[in-house]
Automatic annotation (TrEMBL):
Source organism of this protein record: Ensifer canadensis
GO cellular component term of the entry, any: plasma membrane
UniProt-recorded name of the protein: MFS transporter
Recorded GO MF terms: transmembrane transporter activity
Compartment list: Cell membrane
SUPFAM superfamilies documented for this protein: MFS general substrate transporter
Gene3D superfamilies: MFS general substrate transporter like domains (1.20.1250.20)
Keywords (A to Z) from UniProt: Cell membrane, Membrane, Transmembrane, Transmembrane helix, Transport
PROSITE patterns, per database record: MFS
Pfam family, one: MFS_1
InterPro entries xrefs: MFS, MFS_dom, MFS_trans_sf, MFS_YcaD-like
Transmembrane segments: 20-41, 53-73, 85-104, 110-130, 142-164, 170-189, 205-225, 245-265, 277-296, 302-322, 334-356, 368-389
Keyword presence, Cell membrane: yes
Ranges where the Major facilitator superfamily (MFS) profile domain occurs: 19-394
Length: 394
């Protein structure tokens, strides 16, 4: 385990609310911006007659931007400070959000996507680092549960805002940019309390993927299952005989599970020394749930119950994985590992829909469940191997 970095504050035992509010505000902006921006931009491109292939290609730039931003965020924050870097990211994200309204040339939306989602990723990485670095070790899971709950609420609020605002005119862009800019207020007020990255990490951020593989693999699975599930579940549901509204409601139930289980799972992780066991247990539940899906398609109610708990387990991979990361590393190592964490999530969001979609093409409708079970099964195998080879390592 890394030693505390010189200049980093010693761990505290109580939650420091200004820091928590600053980090949570940043992640709220991330959640709402993504939740509002993705359907908004897709609808506008559809209305302009852009082909589905090009819409998908443009949307995929979000994952590419996240991977690029993850490579330099820690170094930039080391040089300029965590809070100033976050404030610049807020400004860039807000300006580029307006850019989508004023720039009508479709091909310019590709670099614009890179700027927007790159800035959002910087907020993602540094808010996670901030909250992980300042959370009391004994309450880290609880604090990260709050963080994850707010992120989930942001993802849920974005589509709701879109349904109210629509895609016409400048108003949805004003609201989106305004939400992002509001996050700057608590960040600015708590700027003197932001963690300091005094030293450059000893390793390139990519090496942290393999330094804490149980955490980075967990968020990869989370990204793959969440993005693939959200993208293709309505297709799976309607092909299984549910109406479009019934399938959408099942997806909402899964989102509710994602939302309500974050804090309880975070608190549970605080009571468990080796968080790998909890991560493994959640993936086993996810594996069983995925395998049960084809057997439950005749009952909407049973499917809803499974998806409620399944959604909680999927979201728990993010919260507990992040807590595991914070318990293993500190200082500049933690900042670089957070970049690797977000990078792994981005790779998962790109891989998930591709693998699940291809599986449905090859194996039929049940390929949806088999592909998701495959993701969970890979993690269970990795986790068991890690626990067997390193039984005393947390």
């Amino acid at each position: 385990m890394s030693q505390p970095t010189p200049g980093c504050p010693a761990p505290v035992e109580e939650i420091h609310w200004p820091s928590l509010i600053a980090a949570v505000s940043a992640i709220s902006a991330v959640g709402i911006a993504i939740g509002l921006g993705l359907p908004l931009l897709s609808s506008i491109m559809e209305n302009r007659g852009i082909s589905s292939t090009l819409i998908g290609l443009n949307s995929a730039m979000a994952g590419v931007a996240s991977m690029v931003a993850a490579s330099f965020t820690t170094k930039f924050a080391h040089r300029h400070g965590v809070a100033p870097t976050m404030l610049w990211a807020v400004l860039l994200a807000a300006i580029s959000a307006f850019g989508f309204y004023y720039i009508t040339n479709f091909w310019l939306w590709f670099p614009l996507r890179v700027v927007f989602h790159g800035a959002i990723t910087v907020l993602f990485i540094l808010s996670e680092f901030w909250i992980n670095a300042t959370a009391p070790p004994a309450k880290r899971g609880f604090v990260l549960g709050i963080y994850g709950t707010v992120l989930s609420l942001g993802f849920l609020s974005g589509p709701l805002l879109f349904s109210i605002l629509g895609s016409e005119g400048v108003l949805p862009f004003v609201v989106g940019a305004g939400v992002i800019l509001l996050a700057a207020v608590p960040i600015f007020l708590a700027r003197d309390e932001s963690p300091v990255i005094d030293e450059k990490p000893d390793r390139h951020f990519m090496r942290y993927i393999f330094l804490v593989p149980t955490a980075t693999a967990a968020v990869f699975i989370f990204g793959a299952v969440e993005s693939g599930g959200l993208s293709l579940f309505t297709v799976y549901g309607t092909r299984s005989g549910f109406t479009e509204s019934q399938a959408a409601l099942l997806l909402t139930v899964m989102g509710i599970g994602n939302f309500i289980f974050q804090i309880p799972l975070g608190m549970l992780s605080d009571q468990i020394k080796d968080k790998r066991t909890l991560l493994t247990a959640m993936t086993v539940i996810g594996l069983i749930g995925a395998l049960c899906l084809p057997m439950l398609v005749e009952s909407w109610f049973l499917m809803a119950i499974i998806l409620l708990f399944w959604g909680g387990c999927v979201s728990g991979l993010y919260t507990v994985g992040l807590s595991h990361l914070g318990s293993r590393l500190q200082g500049s190592d933690l900042a670089a590992a957070n970049a690797a964490f977000v990078f792994s999530y981005a790779v998962g969001t790109v891989a998930g829909p591709q693998v699940i979609g291809a599986s449905m093409d090859v194996a039929g409708n049940n390929g949806f469940a088999w592909a998701i079970a495959g993701f969970f099964g890979l993690y269970v195998a990795l986790s068991v191997v890690r626990i067997v080879l390193n039984p005393k390592r947390s």
